[in-house]
Design brief:
Layout (H helix, E strand, L loop, with lengths): L9 H40 L10 H15 L10 E2 L3 E8 L5 E8 L4 E10 L2 E10 L6 E2 L2 E4 L7 E11 L4 E10 L2
Parallel strand pairs: 1-9
Antiparallel strand pairs: 2-3, 3-7, 4-5, 4-8, 5-6, 8-9
């Protein structure tokens, strides 16, 4: 039986994909060239549209204006004659009597800066016991330097209210209260 010869030439079938690949590479190269050329033009155009900043020394008028602005912003506000109570800045985290030593220990937490003095006052009826301490500043929060009051300083046993007052250098006072049962 007779087989007719193939009409496609084996060398031609190899040339067609090669031509398509070459054209594709040429299109990609042209696209990259145009994108880069466009980016270069837009950068140049942006440089032309931006304002030029002159870095020259300030004039006398600018210096005076700057000084008056600084003075306006840095004038201290006078402290108020009556300190304003602030309830959320200082708190009693623990008020308890140690079973071994019978000392009444008060621990505190103070948020913010500028706190100067801590006062803790224990009160039962007309009887009061008052202690003061400085502030210990820490990274996360501050605390009063410590209150450990011997039970012998309390005239009677029973329920006592504990009042913490922390004074700020700007005149504010932050307070907190708790109740503690003191055993003699």
């Amino acid at each position: 039986m007779y087989k007719p010869k193939s009409t496609t030439h084996p060398k031609r079938s190899f040339k067609t994909p090669l031509i398509v690949a070459a054209l594709l590479l040429l299109l990609i190269a042209a696209g990259i060239y145009l994108v880069r050329k466009n980016d270069a033009n837009s950068t140049t155009n942006q440089g032309n549209t931006q304002e030029q900043i002159k870095l020259e020394p300030a004039t006398e008028e600018e210096k005076k204006e700057s000084e008056s602005t600084k003075l306006d912003k840095t004038e201290p506000t006078p402290p108020s004659p009556n300190p304003t109570p602030v309830a959320s800045q200082a708190s009693i985290t623990s008020a308890a009597q140690s079973p071994d030593s019978k000392e009444v220990v008060v621990q505190t937490r103070i948020v913010g800066e500028g706190w100067s003095d801590c006062t803790v006052t224990f009160q039962q009826g007309a009887a009061t016991v008052t202690k003061t301490a400085g502030v210990l500043y820490q990274r996360e929060f501050s605390t009063c330097k410590g209150f450990a009051v011997p039970a012998s300083e309390f005239p009677t046993a029973g329920q006592w209210s504990v009042l913490l007052e922390v004074k700020n250098t700007n005149g504010t006072i932050s307070t907190d209260t708790k109740t503690i049962n003191i055993i003699k």
